[in-house]
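User: We ran a pulldown and think these components assemble together. Before we commit to crystallization trials, I'd like a predicted model of the whole complex to look at. Sequences follow.
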Amino acid sequence: MKIYQDSSAPNPRRVRIFLAEKQIEMAYEQIDLSNQQQLTEEFLAINPLGQLPVLQLDDGSYLSETMAICRYFELLQPSPVLFGKSPRQQAEVEMWNRRMEFQLLLNVAHCFQHGHPFFAASKSQSAEFAEISRQRALKSFDQVNTWLAARPFIAGDQFSVADITALCAIDFARVIDIRISESQPHLADWHHRISSRPGSSA
Amino acid sequence: MKIYQDSSAPNPRRVRIFLAEKQIEMAYEQIDLSNQQQLTEEFLAINPLGQLPVLQLDDGSYLSETMAICRYFELLQPSPVLFGKSPRQQAEVEMWNRRMEFQLLLNVAHCFQHGHPFFAASKSQSAEFAEISRQRALKSFDQVNTWLAARPFIAGDQFSVADITALCAIDFARVIDIRISESQPHLADWHHRISSRPGSSA
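Assistant: Here's a predicted model for the assembly, 404 residues in total across the polymer chains.
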């Protein structure tokens, strides 16, 4: 098995941290987004959507979508549990992970993709939408700070994939010049604790 | 248990069809999006994001996010399997469901939310981004048609939650005046088969 990825992008980082938390060794092959290597004919045969990460399985087939890859490894090696254990816990983790994806990561990614000159050649951009997304991302930082006042981890008492999603989204927000502010102490404390985990440097 | 929902919106429809396919009886309470009932103080106490659907559990607690609700019922009542069975099948269903969410449903929803006068009061809009999203949705209809040339269902040989997501996205695209075209015969055939299932009228 190996994973096609780019070291600078948030979704491949989610998978790298996920596997590090499970102490699963993996081979990685760099697909250079800065050279648009994900849009070459060769890579589009691997993932027609031209997105990273992609897992190549031992039978030569491919699996894409960050959460599909993470879930696959959760099923192959359940411990440590990162998607919740009981039906209710699994549903809670799914809810919180989705909230982190749609409120944090998607708004940050939209602001970056619609506002950065790098994407001008390959994607249709809207500077107006980039600004709307920036405002939503800022609001979500506040919202997550409020949620973390009542719980040590995003999905409650246990570290989960929702913390990984939130960490990657928040760190990636530096590309659009958004950082945790002094008015967000719960978010800052959580960020310090999660960043200090060995897996987070993967 | 009961589910707060709106009969006109695509995400509540995904849950209704999912439960109908599993033949799970459910009580539904209408939250009227056309009157912005999802933004009342009362409803924001149920889901601070002001989104539908929300499941109220028997202990009085709430679970939101469409896929969290569906997964919860998949775990409570696995048959018929709608998220895949083996680890590899579960990962495939996750991949295809995510593709249907991000390529189809999200683009359709963005075009609607950024282009329709109804949202002008409650959301920041970008007409420019609405048009970008429309073009992406049109392209995704073609892409899904191509994928369906090689397989009876979105995720392969079995009906799954990915078919439910795609059906709700495609039917909802009527609000932005996008329909399956004559140049998309595989998509048309699939749509006819999926629409004919008893659960699809839920």
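Residues 87-115 of chain A form the longest helix (29 residues). That may be worth checking against your pulldown data before setting up trials.

User: Thanks, that helps.
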